[in-house]
Protein 1
Amino acid sequence: MLQKIREKITGWVAWTIVITIGLVFAVWGIDLSFTPRPVAAKVEGVEVPVEPVRRAYQEQVSRFQQAFRGDVPEEIAGEIRRGVIEQFVSRTLLQQRVEAQGYRIGDGALMDYIQGIEFFQVDGQFSMDAYRAALAGAGYTAPMFEAEQRSLLQVQQLQDAVVLSSFVTSDEIEQRVALQRQLREVEWVALPLERFLEEVEVTDAEVEARYAESSERWMTPETVDLSYIEVKLDELAADIAVSDERLREFYETERAREPERYSGRERRKAAHILLGPGDDAEARLEALRERLAAGEDFATLAAEVSEDPGSARAGGDLGWVERGMMVPAFEEALFALEEGTISAPVRTEFGWHLIRVDEIEKLGGTTFEEAREELLANFRRRQAEDRFYDDAEELARIAFENPGSLVPAATELGYEIRTVEGVSRAGGPGIAASPEVIAAAWSEAVRTEGENSELLELADGHAVVLRVADTHPAELRPLQDVAEQIKAELQREKAAAEARETGEQARARLAAGEPVADVAESLSADFVAGITVVRDDATVPPAVARAAFEAPAPSGDGAAVVATEGANGYFVVKVLSVTPGGIDLLRPEELQELRNQARGARASQELQSYLEDMRENADVTIFESALE
């Protein structure tokens, strides 16, 4: 059984350990810990908290349970656990590499990216109202969301640096074309399953025998009914009354804290003259500044003396500059100038600059009325956080001190005891869909010993304590409820066996050189003769296309003959000839697409190698037992 499960989930488990750069970095959310918690790993001295790793692990386990309708064997659970930890290790290493290599995303680039997200647009245009509403609904503040997106874009820069360096040779392209655009001339005999379904019979005795021998398949799942108390930050926040005066005070506080967001960001049209870091550079710029004050033209002087070749040709013009685009010393001087003025000499790692501001433009900004709904949501959420922490801590304490009931906690805190019924090991409705709830409900302490669970953090601002209110053991479903399903299953098995036996006869005759038409006629079967197919050909049955390209090429005068089972029948396929794909037969756009595919495949390999090398050379300690 374990081997069958392993074969079925090979790709699924592998997916959990393949790290793609585009993964969203973990948002730890509100920390419900009231004592120090263990860590899942240490990566170059940085601790990876155990809770988000545990949540990700439980989500993967829940997916397994839902997919395979059963418990996870410990060997498979261990593979999933190690894969999830490695995901978080790689995420942490990537972020460290991004920071170490100085990847930066300016405020302007960040806002351009966010404004391009369709979810925040109305009629194709960015909507601040839609943006605020979406963030508030997801429990985000703008700084939280923007910080997360900035991290993602920084990692994307790192990805691009690796991927864009990859290339493929012309020989590799030709080999890929020869293989991918290969043509195969085939013919086949088709044995539809429906034909055999009409011929087979299934007796009541056979149905009863299958029912008896596979009784575990017809069991209803064991379920439990849960009682629970939940503390939700959003519900607490909704009950908080806020006066207009208090909200305006909050607006002023936020505007002082995030001036670019509420007062608007600023960009400046700038020009500069750069001299290298020589001993006399500062003095030379002072002399140039005096000449400019006397009326000489800035653009002319920049073209003559500036050592920045890119801007010198344009009279020193740098275009529009926003904060985050230049090195700090340059930026500080630029944004301290009045419009139309020229700075004193400014020192940066590139040398000495004279900076001129030609134009100042204010962008964005949000009035109190425009920001009202977002301000209200954020104010209420912040005000509710203290109570949320207090209530969650008290709930954990009272439930621990009274392990046999939730009534004391509900009475003391004034919360309702809620219920959810029919929770199996694969989950249930409402909160029972959460991996944390499933794991707690079926734990020995809660399920067997009848205790309250520990405090569970289901999401940011959502905490739960639960207990089992009732249990419902697994039961064998009556035969009459499943008889038709069993009968159909047996009919299909018998029909498939008949089709397979007939197909093997056809395969032997075709391999011996008998014409396909004669074989098909003698078996009252359908056939197709002498057509050319391409890989993944959509004009033929999928099983035929797959078999045609899995079969070996014909050798000598003999054709290759293979038999294959499709979704609705059995096929015997004869490969008559193989023609390699020719690059000269491709349209330019097809050739470019193949080049892109080849380059993408190579880039993926190099990216994976980059990640593996980074992991191999990192100081990483994993505490797998913290998840057990």
Note: Residues 1-36 have pLDDT under 50 and may be disordered.
Protein 2
Amino acid sequence: MSRHLFGLSAADLAMEKVGDEVRLRAGAVGTVWDALVGGTQITDLTDLAGNPITQITADTEAAVGFYGPDGVSTVYADFGYSRRFLMMAVDLGDQIDSLSTNKLDLTGGTMLGPIITSGVPSVSGEAVNKAYVDSEVSSGDAATFTSAQAYTDAQAALKVSKAGDAMTGPLTLPGNPTSPLHAATKQYVDALGGGGSGAVSSVNGQTGVVNLTAANVGALATTARGSANGVASLDAATKVPTNQIPDLTSTYLAFEDSWGNQWGPADQGLKAWSFDPSLAVNVSAPVGGSVYLIRVKLRKATTISKVVMFTVAAGSGLTANQNYAGLYTASGTRVGITANQSSAWTTANNTLSMSLTSAYSAAAGDYYVAFVSNGSTRPGFVCGTELGATRTAGNANLSSGGYRYCIGATGQTSLPSSISIASATPDANAYWVGLA
């Protein structure tokens, strides 16, 4: 609501009746009331400039102008001349005109801003606010939502998915197919089959409804692939996988066991070694932090649980938890590691049978035995040739990535999880190692 303007019209002048005359009273001071007689004086007034006043004063031409209280459109002026004069707000017409642009008709229209409601609705016909709607949606009528979802799911279960589905009843078509991709009716198919039975006359000597087995067409069943009395499959490299090659050692003499009158790994309780240890002629202490790699060959699949080495000279002052041996694949992935050997490597002339923390099921192929040592005096391990630099005879005719004796990494305190075999550098020390 707002204040209404009073006065400033020809009827709003300060006047006094003297005899039969009505005289204008410039500068007259009066009060404003809410009734013609009695009532309560109105003091919540402002002048034309908006300044608060409690009385009204006529100007030099006896004209009176002021603003009344908010929402009041009728007042009575008393200038002390024995009567009060009715004054009507003169701006009502302007406010009525503004209704057409600033108010919404009861019959409806378009709001230019939001409607702010007083609170939560209490009857069904009341408008609701955003907070009420959000609360209802978030807290939810669980039963309503569950019921709606259940209904939707039930209806969906009665329909056939366009992506493909299994029907529970027959599908009746409007007629015979006219396009190659149209579904066909039983009647159409029976007519093509002859006699309405849908069976072919003969397949591989069989008549009626024919079910062919692998034997009927001179083939092996798919279940025979890679199995006994079956056929071997090829891997991605067009090779027969190792696990599909029969173990013939129980029938034929295995190559790796046919050492004749020579000693082999099995004769000394081992599964593989780098060379016959009786050929070892030198001893060499490793460089601290260097990971030494010695290549060995497994001629058949086996389980590796230990790495075997031999100390000639004892180590001392070995750094705790920085001395290890282990096993790597030919591609450089570590597949086994021992516990810390800082104490075990301090004994001279000692065969070291070092258990892996977890046994490894190894396929036939090449592997690298690895070890690393750190401490003030590293142990001296038995080895073959020791000609210095990269001149070990053990690497004769071999190139990068295929060395028998090499160093895969330096500055290490343990055996890394993987090593770049292609980056390994050849080593002059042909260390002896074995696998058990």
Note: Helices lie at 92-102, 130-139, 142-157, 186-193.
Protein 3
Amino acid sequence: MAIRKRNGRASSYQVYWNNPFTGKRESASFPTLAEARKEDSLIQHRLKYDRESFRPEEDENISTGGTVREVVALYLSAKRFSDKNLRTILEHLKHVHAVFGNREVSSLEKRDFVKFISDEAERGVKTTTSHRRLTILRAALSWAADSEFIESNPMQGMKLPRGQHERIAPPTPAEVSAILAVAKGHVYRAVMLGIFLGVRIGPTELFRLKWEDVDFERRTIRVWSAAKNKNMPFRDVPIRENLLEEMKVWGRSDVEAGCEFIIHFKGKQIDSMKSAWRDTKKAAGITRRMRPYDLRHAFATYALDNDADLKSVAEIMGHSNPTMILTHYQHTSESSRRAAIESFPDIMPSCAQAMCPKK
């Protein structure tokens, strides 16, 4: 598969590939190189993860509604997801296509999806994962119905069970110290900013931060919010004094090197640090499960544990609803739990012997 440019045509960029079943050359044309590259990426992933989508249908099996596999392929082609999102979506769709791929959409019923969740659970798949897979399918079917490729969405109005989110305890102060003692470069900076600013760890917020977003005089950093909070396009987060001094040192070094992003690897912006995080955890002697995102959880937990205002914590973290903090982030400390126990009025009898049964 490849991309070629054909001058003098409205859609001058053509993506072409060989069908793995027929061996014939197939192609699709686009007006821009960006669109062509996304289609090329989609074809590559289909060839690797969903080769069946290239299998020609026999005439007698073709219907106006189409199969789930056909409808999903149209949906993916129309939506033009980023390469990273597309890889994740296709990984989930492998399991969906194994069950529904060759089924006509018109033959599907709600009980089919209930059975899918039940069968997945028997194989040890978490309900949250099954929910994610069917959510992708529902989005594709909804798009197809709106686009009039199918008569109706068989999942319309269906409430999918979400399951329980896995609760992972945030890193303790001792664990954070152990990580910082061995962390290098971009991992060290990511840990410092994640634990002290409460930003979303990843390309949506933390890895987008630039030096131009930092106001050293006001001691704030402008965080451009993730797309999930459209009512808050950005937020100005205060920087604590000890972190500010560290950032000044980083800034001087990066300005000299011409680095615009605060989190970078050899001067280039990153979009993931899974491998570096795994190696850092190992070097710190931490064996339990702990994700970079748990640094954000730690920020919320320890802020509230030290009597920070709930609304302020929510605003700093970019949440429009403070209840999100209590639902997803707060893991109370032992000291907080002990304080709750000790807060009960002292009604113990003066002599414990009085509570013993008489002989």
Note: The longest helix spans residues 127-146.
Protein 4
Amino acid sequence: MKKAILYSIMLFSGFLSYGQGGIDKADSLVQQARYLNQDRKFKQALEKMALAEPLTLSTFGHESIRYADLCYVYGLIQLSYSNYKEAEKWLDKCSAIRLKLLGKEHLDYLRSLYFLGNVYYHMGDNYERAEQCYLEVKAIEEYTVGVNSLEYAGILSALGVLYLRMGNYDISEKLFLEALHIKEQKLGKEHQSYGGTLNNLAIVYSARKNYEEAEKFYKANIEIIAKEFGKSSIGYAGGIMNLASIYIKTGHYVDAELLFLESKRIFELVPDFSKIPSYMSCMEFLGELYYAMGKFDLSEHYHLIAKELREKELGKEHLSFQMSLANLSLTYWAKRDYVKAASYLTDAADMRRRLLFNASRHLSEKEVFSYTQLFEQELDQHYSFANDHFAVLPHFTTSCYNNTLFHKGFLLNISQRFRSQNITNTQLPDKLQQIQNHRNQFVC
């Protein structure tokens, strides 16, 4: 059986030494880049890779396994650095070379395809491509490494995270539970990878408002992290941050604040901490906490930090940036700064429409209904704001009108797509009627 390889953000591919001066130097540079990447010294790592690339090309050329390996390392460093466009470029190049020279069943090709899927996931606006990459890896691994392998558990977890983000909680839970069973058999219940799957399941249960179950799973993961990495690790910071998010929802604000501030302190010990997506989430959670506590100045402060970091590091088309805009709109509304609130409400709605338009080609029926719930919440906020402050901001009604037209058109297109599908589904008429009911609400 082929050697099992765990999927995690590590630089697996090594470079063999051929005894030639230039190749030895390239090997050394890539090895240095790998260590620098592990220490989160991304700029220095990329500088080493820039020196290694021409040495590799001069000896092996573009259509070589050695160059593909270099592209792979380059791509993973850029992924770690959150430079997703650059990561896409290098990993796409690596995948193409490996597919041509090694074939689609080779583990090196599957690794590069897996991480390419990670890139599309983190971009936040191309889940279709992420799903395509993950499903291809899953299909090949079923008959190469087998459905009881750690590789297979890794791709199940990746798909689970993707579907979780897309709102398909039933499929997500099923995938996580299957991955958890494999990891328990292969690694035991105290391994960090097992704990990571517990954490993912906790997120599912939190999304379903099963907070007691979510708290239990979060705590189990935190215990594993503390034993293996200590209470000063990034993993521990992320774990207690997730637990604190439950305490916001259950109204335990003092407990939540203590955990969030401890998480923030740990993150800020890390070089380039502001580039860590979990740190951005910590800022957003603090903003949500202080909003719930009625401390709106502090809420504004942390939401602005989250927004600025996401805009800088992830870009304005990322889903989390839209979330920051929406949170700021509510904060300014509470502070009675209605001009800023209206501006952020409008920007958040515009961006959500763009994201939804990009995603609409591959939404399942269940995901459509999850989105319609978001529509209703967004429209309710717009209508409430417009009604409350029409005298001050009469032009805001235009934003409400545009919002309604888009959502009505979206649901019309989706219902037509479902009707055109030649599938045997006894529940489809009821689902189409539900869509029609949502459309009728927009008429009002």
Note: The mean pLDDT is 83.
